[in-house]
Amino acid sequence: DTAVSQTPKYLVTQMGNDKSIKCEQNLGHDTMYWYKQDSKKFLKIMFSYNNKELIINETVPNRFSPKSPDKAHLNLHINSLELGDSAVYFCASSHNGESRQFFGPGTRLTVL
Amino acid sequence: AQRVTQPEKLLSVFKGAPVELKCNYSYSGSPELFWYVQYSRQRLQLLLRHISRESIKGFTADLNKGETSFHLKKPFAQEEDSAMYYCALIHGSSNTGKLIFGQGTTLQVKP
Questions:
Q1: Domains of chain B by range and CATH?
Q2: Read out DSSP for A25-59?
Q3: Residue predicted with more confidence, A19 or B32
């Protein structure tokens, strides 16, 4: 299947822990994104990478650190998790020259 | 500042009724606008975009620059249209820009 995939699908953890979410796309796209969907279903961009280079970095706490080992992967590491980090995190990708973005299934993070 | 507004959090209609999901935007320059849909337990997916001027699953949307609107319409709603709908615009270059989303509207089509 050609798609954007994320692991894990669900993540439940304690406050203060460090966790990572992984994203992979096999669509041959050049740009990848992380979006956060909060409890009110509001979606907001967090980061964007183009060919492994950071191009968008919204006002996100520096506890969040994206890493792109290659253009098919964009991982999100979160340090010292807080209750307010509970949300669904969506990865997306797009091809150079195309505005359409393809989304992953989402990772539901619950911080207790 | 660039912004997308969807004034209705929930729109509930009966099957067969017309549907209009409202979207207004604020953007300096020529916007590129989209409607994304999220069905229950599924990922967000593109429904349509204004540059394509197409009809997908019976839905259409016309960009009205005078009213800064991009409302989504369907003449006869079906139960399978029940989902969360997001209006969005691209800020920045088309291929590396960020999507700015509205707050989303839940469409509920009752039998």
A1: 3-110 (2.60.40.10)
A2: E-S--SEEEEEEE-TT--EEEEEEEETTEEEEE-S
A3: A19
